Amino acid sequence: MLKQSYQDALDRWKKNITASDNRLFFIEDTSVAIESLSTAEREIPGLDVKYWMAETNFAALDKQLKELGNNRHASVRSDLVLHLSKDLRELAQNKPYLCFTSSVSGSIVNKELNIETNPLYPWLDNKSFNKWFVPNGCKKPISLLPITQADQYDFRANAFKEMLAFLEQNKKITRRSEPEKQQNLDVEEPLIIICGPSCAGKTTLAEYLAGKFGYYHIEASDFMYLSYYQRHGVTSTVKIGDFAEQALKDQPEIVARQILQNIQENKANLVVVTGFRSPLEIEWFQNYYTGEHPILVCFVTADADIRFMRSVSRNRDETASNRDTFDSADKQQFAMGLGEIENRFDSSTIKNNESLESFFSFFEEKYLKNKQLSPSKHLATSELEKLILLALLKEWSGRNYFTTTEIAHLINDSLSEKPKSKNNISRYLNQRLYPYFDIKLIDGKRKYRLSNTGYGKASLLNL
After folding, report:
1. Are 44 and 155 found together in one domain?
2. Is 192:215 a contact under the CB 8 Å cutoff?
3. Which of the 8 DSSP states describes residue 37?
4. Are residues 196 and 335 in the same domain?
5. What is the three-state SS of 180-220?
6. pLDDT tens track for 392-403
7. How many Å is the Cα radius of gyration of the chain?
């Protein structure tokens, strides 16, 4: 089975990845062996555990185990198959891949428990075998364990450790080091962080700064969605608000780290970041930003009634048009730490209850007067990424979503040269997730439009 899984993955890899002979990939297969149901020749449910779980209810399994003497012992095994690059194959006696294995033993619960999927760690869920599996030494199924304890019983852990040690030993990876802290502030142009509740005017101010001064606008929530998609996929029923709240408690740097990396990758000069929700995010960003620009934090707010009316008039998919829902979202944001940010940066609070003209002029007068600003004109990008961003920029006002085929048509309608293939665009969007795109499943098809960060980058590329 593992050989077949590897071969299927290899075929897809060669089809979609250029220069694949010099690159690595790995696949992971999980298998479960329930002792009283398995034989020496066959593990049950084995590698079919995902489909078995979909077809098996606890009452039927419990009855079957009791009829067989109530031996509830089980083990969960992880097999990691690492595809070797050409140079590593020479070191591994020309083997095309190496396999790393680890397992955990335990038992099946005596009674099914009510379990909700952990928003931040989706493998601690209510669908997989983890909801029934109690590791030896524990009293609860692994899905109910706190993450520090669950990590100790993660059946994949040792396999990953062995694989990473092999790659590090052969100089394919290096350990991540903590970024150096900011030392010298050689310029007066500020890197601006704008915080505040929904519909206070954060994005409006950031887009004004981008249009007038050439700031690269980065929206923090785009990176929170990126983390969410990486863990849950696009179709998950886990609420993004619940995920964000849990993430900021457990990993307050989850967004800030990605934003710093994005600033470095894009070689951006002037940057404005909107949407941090926790003071710990700001602290981490301030500590590990290594650029030369002083960091300016301001808090934008407006009366709740005004913000709600803006929410209704904007009619955004993700913005509540019901007052109770709007207030509930507000409460959750402040629970994440927004209120603490407001208190900490009270002297930098700007009220946005009046006209946009007075809002913008007050900000400029207070923070940017007499400053020489050098716009971020040349953000780093690939040719294909630039074409995708600029094609979707033309469709920004409609806020519509597009399939990869439709994006290809948008690009080719504006090109006089050789048309771009839909396959190239699909490959770009499917190989990894980006903070530049909102993703939505419509009629079973994945569709894309620019996120606020994508709009910020595309606007600068369009200068």
Report:
1. yes
2. yes
3. T
4. yes
5. CCCCCCCCCCCEEEEECCCCCCHHHHHHHHHHHHCCEEEEH
6. 999 999 999 999
7. 26
